[in-house]
């Protein structure tokens, strides 16, 4: 049995997809496989205090974000708890105090759903572990990733490992639609320390949420080809990741980013999440790469911000380029230097 009360805490990172997840089937199953770099600096820290609750009628919890009560996040957490209750039957027997904070600036336009859902899932699994002492490490992380997926699809890639793959693929052993796995093939050391500077182009609310975007892939004229392309790109990535062929890496990653946005522009209704400065930055990245031969490239999430990816060896030069050339296209000149991390940690 669980102790009457206790407290657990985890820090989980954000992630950036190289092959994008866009389109899903119920419940939170991906229409295509994806793979991401785990980030390091951009992370959410969450603690969950639990105390035996005698009423046992519904979920009972309070939520604090950066030290203050945050009632407008509660419906999302409520839905999440409803979804995962069948996997964690103790949930209604406890009152939870959830305290969460992000390492990245508040409303910076960086989505915290991946890191946030990953950190919360790990906390709940940690409580589950106190109930099931036999739970081995692999099952612990697989189940945490499974739960995180039910909170936010891409959150399942924010649990463990520096390169995480999610979505069943015939050529990737142990791959699953249900949870993310550490990429099982050879990875060239250059990718273990890869840098990602997030250029904050637009910090406001997105006009279209990723939930709506995923839905618009149903009946989308290019959906089937796009899903097939993602499967193929995972195959293509295998020798690239092993050899460290940056020229091929850049082609694949930039094409994935633009395809994601092409899907948005060709859905019905159609929409555009890029801003003029997103395109300015992309053009400057291409120009810089062309003239310096430094292998920088970009990727995009479902938003206007640009992720600038580059090898650690080029850090100094690229950071000068960011400061001198790209920063003026960022809202209030803001950007965040991050790099590939290892996954979540218990604190
Ligand atoms: O996890 P969601 O439902 O917010 O979807 C995220 C989708 C992208 O960030 C655009 C791509 C990805 O694979 O992370």
Automatic annotation (TrEMBL):
<keyword id="KW-0067">ATP-binding</keyword>
<keyword id="KW-0443">Lipid metabolism</keyword>
<keyword id="KW-0547">Nucleotide-binding</keyword>
<feature type="domain" description="Mvd1 C-terminal">
    <location>
        <begin position="198"/>
        <end position="337"/>
    </location>
</feature>
<keyword id="KW-0456">Lyase</keyword>
<dbReference type="InterPro" id="IPR014721">
    <property type="entry name" value="Ribsml_uS5_D2-typ_fold_subgr"/>
</dbReference>
<feature type="domain" description="Diphosphomevalonate decarboxylase-like N-terminal">
    <location>
        <begin position="12"/>
        <end position="170"/>
    </location>
</feature>
<dbReference type="GO" id="GO:0005524">
    <property type="term" value="F:ATP binding"/>
</dbReference>
<dbReference type="Pfam" id="PF18376">
    <property type="entry name" value="MDD_C"/>
</dbReference>
<dbReference type="Pfam" id="PF22700">
    <property type="entry name" value="MVD-like_N"/>
</dbReference>
<keyword id="KW-0444">Lipid biosynthesis</keyword>
<dbReference type="InterPro" id="IPR029765">
    <property type="entry name" value="Mev_diP_decarb"/>
</dbReference>
<dbReference type="GO" id="GO:0019287">
    <property type="term" value="P:isopentenyl diphosphate biosynthetic process, mevalonate pathway"/>
</dbReference>
<comment type="similarity">
    <text>Belongs to the diphosphomevalonate decarboxylase family.</text>
</comment>
<dbReference type="GO" id="GO:0005829">
    <property type="term" value="C:cytosol"/>
</dbReference>
<dbReference type="InterPro" id="IPR053859">
    <property type="entry name" value="MVD-like_N"/>
</dbReference>
<protein>
    <recommendedName>
        <fullName>diphosphomevalonate decarboxylase</fullName>
        <ecNumber>4.1.1.33</ecNumber>
    </recommendedName>
</protein>
<dbReference type="InterPro" id="IPR041431">
    <property type="entry name" value="Mvd1_C"/>
</dbReference>
<dbReference type="GO" id="GO:0004163">
    <property type="term" value="F:diphosphomevalonate decarboxylase activity"/>
</dbReference>
<dbReference type="InterPro" id="IPR036554">
    <property type="entry name" value="GHMP_kinase_C_sf"/>
</dbReference>
<dbReference type="InterPro" id="IPR005935">
    <property type="entry name" value="Mev_decarb"/>
</dbReference>
<dbReference type="InterPro" id="IPR020568">
    <property type="entry name" value="Ribosomal_Su5_D2-typ_SF"/>
</dbReference>
